[in-house]
Amino acid sequence: MKTWENNVRKVVPYTPGEQPDDKYMIKLNTNENPYPPAPGVERVLRGMDTDALRLYPDPSAGELVRAIADFYRLDEDQVFVGIGSDDVLAMSFLTFFNSGKPVLFPDITYSFYDVWADLFRIPYKRPALDENFHIKKEDYFQENGGIIFPNPNAPTGVEMPLSEIEEIVRENQDVIVMIDEAYVDFGAQSALPLIEKYDNLLVIQTFSKSRSMAGMRIGFACGDPKLIKYLNDVKYSFNSYTMDRTALAAGVEAVRDKEYFQETCRRIIETREWAKKELKALGFCFEDSKANFIFATHKTCPAEKLFQALREKHIYVRYFRKERIDNYLRITIGTKDEMEQLIEFLKSFI
């Protein structure tokens, strides 16, 4: 090893979901929304003044912050935006998890958490989910340097009741508790109302799932104004112009069309509930998902075998070679037609 390599910050990187280039595929592996963004997004992008792209965007992302604040009935100083929720989460790790005490997050959860912890040299513990993949609230009543978990959890889709989330926040008022709500719009209860009561709570959401804008990269955090100020201080110390002009303009239009947003979520929820019944009839087992995916195992057919068979038919789902979940598939909810094709294939294969 070269001497300079001793001083390199080394980390095992996050592995994103596969992005196949297959025009005939049914893509159910990365929890993308199967429907297009709100109509206003296309209109604003078509009408953009490209000459304006030579100018820096608004570093405060003011118009988008106002739109989010209006939608959720918050003050502007309670909202922070970034380049997807991953950027917001990473900035939050960097800003708030610095006590030297271990941060707590579940053993089965979003696999970027331990990557950020390792990258920023943050110690952590991973309390185990119970046998039904539920978070045990009592595990988060121990001394810690902060807490982070998704609700609904990923990749399980299991929702923690808001009353239990509040217990965790209330028992940990000397640290920051972050709730990652990437999938909350598909039937779960948001912790956003609690930010008025607890100044140590940060709620993070994304435009990638329920607002059909994974390709645009917009995420946001809501919390006490002091938390938002600290986040902005770190952001401006890292990169002042994090949001580009196209993302800002498109994001505003996506937030404003509340009716389209609600209808798209309703269609996905309806298809998910239909798919649950069909999968159960085929011998699959899973917890009750409140996300836009189902995390399922089959009673007799190994998950890896199913994964490979589906892939050969150009149907892509997510398979994790990880302890405790290596016999499960995470199946994104697509359109009704896509899910019908999935079910028909499974009927013929199993």
Characterize the structure shown.
The protein is an alpha/beta fold and 350 residues long. The protein has 10 helices and 13 strands. The chain has helices spanning 39-46, 62-72, 84-96, 113-119, 162-170, 225-238, 245-256, 258-281, 303-312, 336-349; strands spanning 26-27, 79-82, 103-104, 124-125, 147-150, 177-180, 201-206, 219-223, 284-286, 293-298, 315-316, 318-319, 329-332. The strands form 4 sheets. The protein has a 5-stranded mixed β-sheet, sandwiched between helices. A 4-stranded antiparallel β-sheet has the order 9-10-13-12, with helices on one face. α1 packs antiparallel against α7 and α2 (62-72) runs parallel beside α7 (245-256). The longest helix is centred in the C-terminal third of the chain and has 24 residues, at 258-281. The protein is globular, with a radius of gyration of 21 Å.
